[in-house]
Amino acid sequence: MSAWWCLLLWPVAMSAQADAVRADVVRHGDTVMLSANFTVAVPQSLAWEVMVDFEHMPAFLPQLDESHAVPTSPDHLEVRQRGHYVVAGLSFSYESVRDINLLPMSEIRARTLEGSAGKVESICHLQQRGEQTVVNYRADWTPGSIWQAAIGTDFLKQQLVRQFDAMQQEMLRRKAHPIAPVSVP
To answer: What SS3 string covers the chain?
Structure first.
């Protein structure tokens, strides 16, 4: 088979290894409840590796421009991120600082410390099921501005799907093309 056929079939092969991301967004007063879940044919350790790879997220997450993580204790990180989103042709930037609490390989809890993105408290569970990993994400978001509060639930749902689809594709990419560990002399 020629190389160009492989390129054409790559998206089909990738989609066969992953479920579509399912997302939901519900407004409840001033709070927006977000959820997303998917199943992907990678080991839980690889899914975890991608979900906590904050330093490299701008390379695979759309609209994320900068991301830096600083350990504050063995199971906590302070993550600073800057990004943008486009609504109705207008570009908006955001920044956030979050406290990330890690329960290795199974749970990521995050809460906003500061920033323009509003207040978010989230939890992401990863669970191995056979040869696949199930990812379940839930968050409560209180928008940080009147403009953020005006964003429609359909747009937010699209953004959730876009973000988690990008993570899922990065998981599959790393499975297909593992990065060799760097040896330290």
So the answer is: CCHHHHHHHHHHHHHCCECCCEEEEEEECCEEEEEEEEEECCCHHHHHHHHCCHHHHHHHCCCEEEEEEEEEECCEEEEEEEEEEEECCEEEEEEEEEEEEEECCCEEEEEEEEECCCEEEEEEEEEEECCEEEEEEEEEEECCCHHHHCCCHHHHHHHHHHHHHHHHHHHHHHHHCCCCCCCCC
